[in-house]
User: Fold this.
Amino acid sequence: MGAGGQQTEMASCSGIYTWEEVQSHCRRNDMWLVIQRKVYNVTNWATKHPGGFRVIHHYAGEDATEAFTAFHPDKKFVHRFLKPLLIGKLAETEPNQDRQKNAAVSQDFKDLRARAVQQGLFRAHPLFFMAHLIHIVLLEVLAWLLVWFWGTNWISTIVCAVLMATAQIQAGWLQHDFGHLSVFKKSTWNHLAHKFLIGHLKGASANWWNHRHFQHHAKPNIFSKDPDVNMLRMFVIGSVQPVEYGTKKIKHMPYNHQHRYFFLVGPPLLIPVYFHLQIMRVMIVRRDWVDMAWALSYYLRYFSCYIQLYGLLGSFALIVFVRFLESHWFVWVTQMSHLPMDIDHEKHQDWLTMQLQATCNIEESPFNDWFSGHLNFQIEHQ
Assistant:
């Protein structure tokens, strides 16, 4: 064993580590991270992590204190799982933050968060979410009654599709809040409501959404870590990627025309094609039978209502058109708060700086609040 290995072994015995030692454990089969100056070996735990393996891997070899605080409302419950993973702590001579993270900014943000908690700003109002759910159900009922009463002519079909797409996008905003465990005090109730909303009301998978969306919040607008900026080589985004592709002469697509073909393959196809194929693949590969059952309950409900009106092929065409409309709405709302901002490779910034550089707000108004599911307050949300 070389000198470096001897030093690591001695450090392991004492349980005192430097940032340099922690940062060396950042591979898929060797992952350490730091939470509140305590060092944890999460290598074996990562595959069992409810939020997914990747979000853990994104913080391997780093300080994950702020991400841990943001993602886990019930700290006492989570610490029971952390305790067996504890292997030591940072040396007293080591700073609280690793790399170029700004300790002063992190402390200011910690104080701000504590003040917000004290003022009750994180306290949810269940009646608001109940009213939101009722208005979604009413939209779906109205869509069906419209066609049942007026028939399947073009006008009533288009109005029905618009109402259904509105219900679908609003259900998407509502499940988003429960997916973040931000409505009920108990995580179990949030998870159950989330599965109902995204499964039975939308025909999607809660686990797929969690694993994807938590990565986005953990590392927003960071290539290879945020799936929301993974454009499948169809588009180049930000100010860094176009230069890299140009320098390396990478031409998977005619990127100089992407502003034209974006409208043909971006908003129209994201939900009806890409998301649906990905959801089905994830549920089958991971054998996620619970989420599959929830998703099937949506399609059973939908087809039982509309086959009698449109037939099998007509019902299929209608739901595809609804997804088409929903996809446009979803793309413009979700991307207007992120794509105009910095999109780059990992810079290892502190939590607040990273989030602010990747996020912007949209003007507040009653319509904008409803239309975007309050995601126009994207900075506060992140």
Summary: The radius of gyration is 23 Å.
